[in-house]
Design goal:
This protein is of the alpha+beta class. Helix content is about 25%, strand content about 20%. It has 23 helices and 33 strands. The strands form nine sheets. Strands 11, 12, 14, 15, 16, 17, 19 and 20 form an eight-stranded mixed beta sheet that branches. Strands 5, 6, 7, 8 and 9 form a five-stranded antiparallel beta sheet that branches. The N terminus is likely disordered.
C-alpha cells in the first residue's frame, strides 16, 4: 500500500495508457431443445385460469387495507411452482428470471427448493402490471400460431402452477404464529426507490418498534422490528411487495468475542472492518470523551481518533482500566456505535465525525483525585483539549460518576458541568462581554448505574449519580433491545423485555421533583441483564454492546454495557447530527435530540391509550414520575435531521434580555412572540384525527452554587425561560395583552416561579387547562430544557397558531449586587407537528405560509 499523503487530496491513478481493446464473444452452450410441454395451448390456458383466480378483485376506493408506502406500488403476492425435473440427471427446475418484468415491477421476492427439486417462488404483481402479465400469458397460450414462433416460452414453460400467496409464505416454515411472546424479526426489504426508510416509517406508524440500526446489502436492507409473530405477519400483509423475507432475529455479539483458535477470531473481524473505514473530512465535528484514556493504536480507532491526551502528562494517554478497558470502549461507541452491526455486514463505513480522548481519571498508583476536585479536573480537561486542538465543533461525553454523592441537589461537579456548557469557566464571561456571546458547549453525562445481585434489588432501582443532576448537561439513561441469548445460556433469561428501560439505568423519580430537572432526558442502548431461576442477576455478553477493548493484541473486542455505553452512543448520535446539520448552536442540537426522541412501544403504552386522542388518565404527578425514569424516549436520527410532509419541525434561535433595571428593583424586560406558519387547511381536513405538537425550549443557565440553590431553583439559575401557546379561542391581540404583564414589574409575588399564565381563563378551553398537554406549564420549574407534548384532535390545534417565550425568575434579577440584570441570554425553540400515518402534506402548506408571514413582518418593520 502506498504511503498516505497528508498534504491534501490527490488524483487517482489512471490506467488508460496501458489499455488495449479487442473483440470478445461469450462462448455458446449446447441447448436442450426438447419441449417441456406436449400441449402449450392447454398449458397456457391452465396458467391463465390459475392467474385469474390468484389475483383478487381490486378493492374499491377507500376500502384498500394495503398501506400506502412511498416507493411501493400497490399489488399482490402470487405463488409459482415449477415443473420438477423428469430425471435425476437434470438440475433443479427454477423459475426463470425472464418471468420478471422489472419495468413493471413484477419481481420474484423469495424462492424455496422443494423435495423433488422443483421451486416455489413468491412473486409480486403490481395492480397496474396485471394487464401486461395477462396479455403475455394469453399470447403464450395461443392455439394457432401459423408460421410464428411461440412467444414467452422461456418465461412460462417451466411454470407448473400459479396460486394466491399468503404472506405467511415469507416467513420460515417453522414459524409459530400462535406464539404470543414478542421477539426480534428481520424484515428483508427491497432496496428500491428509497423504500427501506419509507417502510421503517410505515412500521412505526403501524405501532411496531423498529431498531435504529440496519444491515445494508446491494439489493436488500435488513430492518429489525420487535413484535409477536402475528403482529409481524399483520404488518407484512399490509405492505405486499416491500418485503422479500421475514426471518427471526437470532444473532448476538458472542461470535465476535471468540478468542479460541479456529477459522475466525476477533482479530479477523477487526481487520475486516478496519479495511472498510473511510475517515471523516478534515473539518468534521468531533466528540471528546473524558474518561480513562484510550488504546490509540487500536485498528478500529486509528482512522477516527484525532487526538489522545491526559490531564496530567505523567498519567499517559493510554487506557489503564482493567477488564478490557473503559475509555477505549466509550470512544469506539462514540465513533462507530455498537460494533455488532458494522461487524455483521460488508458496508463501507464512512465516518461523519472524529473522536478525541482526554484522560480524566488517574491510573493505579497515581495520586487519586478526591471527589470534591472532579469538577475542576473536568473543566481542566475541557480547557486542555480546546487549547490543544482548537477549531472543530465539539461535543463532550462524560461516563464517570460518583454514586455515593447526594444527587438530589447541585454539587460542585454538576455545577462545573453547568459552567462548562454555559461558557463561564475561567475568564470566558469577562472576555465575552455578554452571557449570550460566551462559548457554549454540549455535554453528555451518564445517568449512573443500578447495582445489585438479585432481581428484587434491581427492580428497586437507584437514583441518578452525581453529576447527572446537572441542569445544562444532557443526562443519558439506558434502554435495551437485547434479549437473544445463545444456546449455552440454559436456565438464564433476559431480565427485562425488548424496548424496556435497561435494568442498569438510574432515574430521578424518587428525588424531589420540584427541585430537579427531569433526568435522564434521553435513552440509548445500555444492554440487558440475565436472571437465573433463583432470581440472581448478572451481565452477559449476548445482552451487551460490542466495543473496542484496550488490549489490542490479546482481546481487541469486548462486551460493554450500562449507561457508560449509552453515553458513548449519545456522542455517536450527536456527531452524526452535527455533521448532517452544521452551524446550529449547542442549545439547538440538544433541543433537536430531545425533540426527535420517541418512546419504544412498551413505554408508550403506559402514556397513551390504544385508541384515545389524548393521554391516559393518570395524574400529572404519576406522568412526571414515569418521565423521570424513561425520559422523553430514544432519539431518532432521521427525525432530528429532516422533516417530512406529515411530520415537520420548526426551529428558532434568538438572543433576549430577560430583565432590566426598574425604578427600585430589576423588572422583567422582554418576551418574544412567534406568529407560527400553521397549516390550518391541512389540520382542518384531518378533523378529529389525532395529531401531536412537540415543543422544546433549550437554553444554558449560569449556575449559582449556593445552599439556597438546593431548594429554590430560581436562586441557582441565572435566568429562566418558559413558553406559552396561544389559546384556542384567543385572538392575536388578546394573546399579546395576556403576556405583556411580564413587562409590568409591579407584580409582588412573581419571583416564586409558581405563577401560571397558561392556567388563566383555563375554563374556556379544556386543552388550555392541561388535559392535552403531557406535563402542563406548572409541572417542572427546574432545569434549562423544557419539553412538553400536546396530543389531541387536529381540529383543536388549528387556532393555537402563536407561541411566546417569556422570562421566569433568576438570580440575575434578584441579586442586584451582581450587576447582571441587563445581561443577555439566548435560547433555541423547536416545535414539531406530527400526524402519524396520515396522508397529508402539512409541510407544503406550512412552508408557503411561512414565506407569506415573513413578507408581512418584514413590511411592518420597514414601515415602522
Amino acid at each position: 500500500m502506498a504511503e498516505q499523503d497528508f498534504d491534501g487530496p490527490k488524483p487517482h491513478l489512471s490506467l488508460d495508457s496501458v489499455r488495449r481493446a479487442g473483440a470478445y464473444a461469450a462462448p455458446k452452450r449446447k441447448m436442450d431443445a426438447k419441449p417441456l410441454r406436449d400441449d402449450y395451448a392447454a398449458h397456457g390456458a391452465a396458467l391463465l385460469k390459475q392467474l385469474t383466480a390468484a389475483l383478487p378483485h381490486l378493492p374499491p376506493p377507500g376500502a384498500d387495507a394495503r398501506l400506502r408506502v412511498d416507493g411501493l406500488k400497490a399489488g399482490v403476492l402470487v405463488a409459482l411452482e415449477t415443473l420438477p425435473p423428469d430425471t435425476a440427471r437434470k438440475g433443479p427446475s427454477k423459475i426463470p428470471l425472464t418471468f420478471e418484468l422489472p419495468g413493471q415491477d413484477v419481481v420474484i421476492l423469495s424462492s424455496r427448493r422443494t423435495a423433488d427439486r422443483a421451486e416455489e417462488s413468491i412473486v409480486f404483481v403490481p395492480d397496474d402490471a396485471r394487464a401486461g402479465l395477462t396479455r403475455r400469458l394469453t399470447d403464450y397460450g395461443v392455439a394457432d400460431l401459423g408460421n410464428r414462433e411461440r412467444p414467452y416460452v422461456a418465461q412460462f414453460e417451466r411454470v407448473e402452477r400459479i396460486t394466491a400467496a399468503e404472506t405467511a409464505k415469507l416467513f420460515d416454515v417453522a414459524t409459530d404464529f400462535n406464539a404470543e411472546a414478542p421477539r426480534w424479526w428481520e424484515l428483508w426489504v427491497r432496496d428500491v426507490n428509497a423504500l427501506p426508510p419509507a417502510l421503517v416509517t410505515a412500521a412505526r406508524n403501524f405501532g411496531l418498534d423498529v431498531h435504529p440500526q440496519q444491515l445494508s446489502f446491494p439489493d436488500t436492507t435488513v430492518v429489525f422490528i420487535y413484535a409477536s409473530a402475528r403482529q409481524a405477519l399483520a404488518f407484512a400483509s399490509r405492505v405486499p411487495g416491500a418485503i422479500e423475507e421475514v426471518r427471526p432475529g437470532l444473532g448476538t455479539i458472542e461470535p465476535f468475542l471468540t478468542l479460541a483458535a479456529g477459522r475466525v477470531t476477533q482479530h479477523d473481524f477487526v481487520h475486516d472492518l478496519a479495511k472498510r473505514i473511510i475517515p471523516a473530512r478534515s473539518n468534521a465535528p468531533t466528540v471528546c470523551v473524558m474518561d480513562t484514556g484510550v488504546a490509540s493504536a487500536h485498528p478500529l480507532l486509528t482512522d477516527g481518533l484525532a487526538i489522545a491526551i491526559a490531564v496530567d502528562e505523567a498519567w499517559g494517554a493510554d487506557d489503564h482500566y482493567r477488564y478490557g478497558g473503559h475509555g477505549t470502549s466509550v470512544v469506539s461507541l462514540a465513533l462507530h456505535g455498537d460494533l455488532e452491526h458494522p461487524m455483521g455486514d460488508q458496508r463501507i463505513v464512512e465516518l461523519s465525525h472524529t473522536v478525541e480522548s482526554v484522560k480524566l481519571l488517574p491510573p493505579k498508583g497515581a495520586a487519586p483525585i478526591p471527589p470534591p476536585s472532579y469538577g475542576l479536573v473536568t473543566q481542566s480537561a475541557v480547557g486542555l483539549i480546546e487549547a490543544t486542538r482548537p477549531g472543530p465543533e465539539r461535543s463532550f461525553c462524560l461516563a464517570s460518576c460518583h454514586p455515593d454523592a447526594d444527587s438530589s441537589r447541585p454539587s460542585s461537579w454538576s455545577g462545573s458541568l453547568d459552567q462548562i456548557a454555559a461558557g463561564t469557566i475561567g475568564g470566558e464571561l469577562e472576555s465575552s462581554k455578554s452571557a449570550a456571546r460566551a462559548p457554549k458547549r454540549l455535554v453528555f453525562v451518564a445517568a449512573g448505574n443500578v447495582t445489585g445481585a438479585t432481581a428484587n434489588q434491581i427492580d428497586e432501582g437507584a437514583a441518578i449519580s452525581d453529576p447527572a443532576q446537572s441542569w445544562n448537561a444532557l443526562t443519558v439513561g439506558g434502554y435495551t433491545t437485547k434479549i437473544e441469548l445463545g444456546k449455552d445460556a440454559d436456565r438464564l433469561s433476559p431480565l427485562v423485555g425488548a424496548n424496556e428501560v435497561s435494568p442498569y439505568s438510574t432515574s430521578s423519580r424518587d428525588l424531589p421533583t420540584d427541585l430537579l430537572p427531569i433526568k435522564p432526558e434521553v435513552l440509548f442502548e445500555a444492554g440487558n441483564m440475565t436472571v437465573d431461576e433463583a432470581g440472581y442477576c448478572d451481565w452477559h455478553p449476548a445482552l451487551s454492546l460490542l466495543a473496542a477493548g484496550n488490549n489490542v493484541e490479546a482481546e481487541p473486542l469486548v462486551a460493554f454495557w450500562a449507561t457508560s455505553a449509552a453515553v458513548g452512543l449519545a456522542g455517536h448520535f450527536m456527531g452524526r447530527l452535527r455533521a448532517a446539520l452544521p452551524g446550529y448552536w449547542p442549545e439547538t442540537y440538544r433541543a433537536l435530540m430531545v425533540q426527535s426522541a420517541r418512546w419504544p412501544e412498551p413505554i408508550r403504552r403506559k402514556l397513551t391509550p390504544p385508541r384515545g386522542k389524548t393521554w391516559k388518565g393518570d395524574s400529572k404527578a404519576e406522568k412526571i414520575k414515569l418521565l423521570r425514569h424513561v425520559g422523553f424516549g430514544v432519539p431518532q436520527l432521521d427525525l432530528a435531521i429532516a422533516s417530512a410532509k406529515n411530520d415537520f419541525t420548526m426551529i428558532a434561535q434568538a438572543e433576549m434580555q430577560p430583565y432590566a433595571n426598574g425604578a427600585t428593583a430589576a423588572v422583567y424586560n422582554e418576551v418574544h412572540f412567534y406568529d407560527l406558519p400553521w397549516p390550518k387547511t391541512a389540520l382542518t381536513s384531518l378533523g378529529d384525527r389525532a395529531v401531536t405538537l412537540r415543543v422544546t425550549l433549550s437554553y444554558f443557565i449560569e449556575p449559582n452554587l449556593t445552599g439556597k440553590g438546593a431548594t429554590r431553583p430560581e436562586t441557582y439559575r441565572s435566568f429562566g425561560l418558559r413558553f406559552a401557546l396561544k389559546k384556542r379561542g384567543e385572538s392575536e391581540l388578546e394573546f399579546r395583552v395576556r403576556l405583556s404583564q411580564l413587562k409590568d414589574g409591579e407584580i409582588s409575588d412573581e419571583d416564586d416561579d409558581e405563577w401560571d399564565l397558561e392556567a388563566e381563563g383555563a375554563s374556556e378551553d379544556k386543552d388550555d387547562a392541561g388535559s392535552n398537554w403531557l406535563l402542563g406549564p406548572k409541572a417542572v420549574s427546574a432545569g434549562s430544557l423544557h419539553c412538553d407534548i400536546w396530543r389531541g384532535k387536529a381540529m383543536d390545534l388549528v387556532n393555537h397558531d402563536a407561541i411566546a417565550v417569556h422570562p421566569a425568575p433568576g438570580w440575575w434579577k434578584s441579586h442586584l449586587g451582581k450587576g447582571r440584570q441587563s445581561d443577555h441570554c439566548r435560547y433555541a425553540l423547536v416545535l414539531s407537528i406530527t400526524a402519524d400515518g396520515a396522508d397529508v402534506d402539512l409541510y407544503a402548506e406550512a412552508s408557503a405560509i411561512l414565506v407569506e408571514k415573513a413578507i408581512v413582518i418584514e413590511t411592518e418593520n420597514l414601515i415602522g
